[in-house]
Amino acid sequence: MEYLAQSLEPVPHEINEIDWKGGLSSEKNRLTEHLIAFANHPNGGFLAYGIRDIDAVLVGVRQDDVARIVNMLANIGRDAIEPALAIDHAVVDYRGASVLLIRIPEQATKPAHRRGKSIEESWIRSGGTTRKASRQEIGALMLHGHAPRWEELRASTLLVANQITGLLDLARITELLQRQLPDDEAELMRWLCDEKMLVPDGKGYYITNLGAIAAARDLDQFENLKRKRIRVIHYRGMNKVETINEHMGQRGYAIGFEGLINYLNRILPHSEVIRQSLRTVVSVYPEIALRELIANALIHQDFSITGAGSMIEVFDDRIEFTNPGSLLPGKRVDRLIGTTPESRNEGLASAFRRYRICEERGTGFQKVVAGIELFGLPPVVFTPMENAFRVTLYAPKKFADMSQTERIEACYQHAVLKFFSNDVMTNTSLRERLKIAEKQRAQISRLIRDAVDGGRIKRKDPHSKSSKFTEYLPYWG
Question: Under CATH, to which class is 399-474 assigned?
Answer without folding.
Answer: mainly alpha
